[in-house]
Amino acid sequence: MLKNLLGRLKSQKGMSGVLVALLLVVVGVGLVAGVNSYLTGQKTRIQTSATGKITNALQ
After folding, report:
1. Contact 5, 24 (CB under 8 A)
2. What pLDDT is attached to residue 12?
């Protein structure tokens, strides 16, 4: 994947193309990190809720 990215960066014409490519990479990484963080939080919330409901059902 890194080779592909470096190849794309080298094929860009001028400095603005390189900057746009790097900006897209940074935005993509940030988006993936944000979605991962959100999903982890939701998973924890669902597990906590399910544990509480199972405990209540068994009592």
Report:
1. no
2. 62
* Integer Cα distance of 23 and 17 in angstroms: 10
Phi and psi of 13, rounded to 5°? -90, 120
Yes or no: say if 25 and 5 are a contact pair by the CB < 8 Å rule: yes
pLDDT digits (tens, 9 = 90+) for 5-51: 777 766 666 677 778 888 999 999 999 999 999 999 999 999 999 99
∠ CA 43-36-44, nearest 5°, is 15
Closest CA to 20 of 29, 11, 31, 9: 9
Q: Tokens standing for 24?
A: 């897209």
CB contact at 8 A, 3 and 10: no
Structure token pair of residue 47: 């597990």
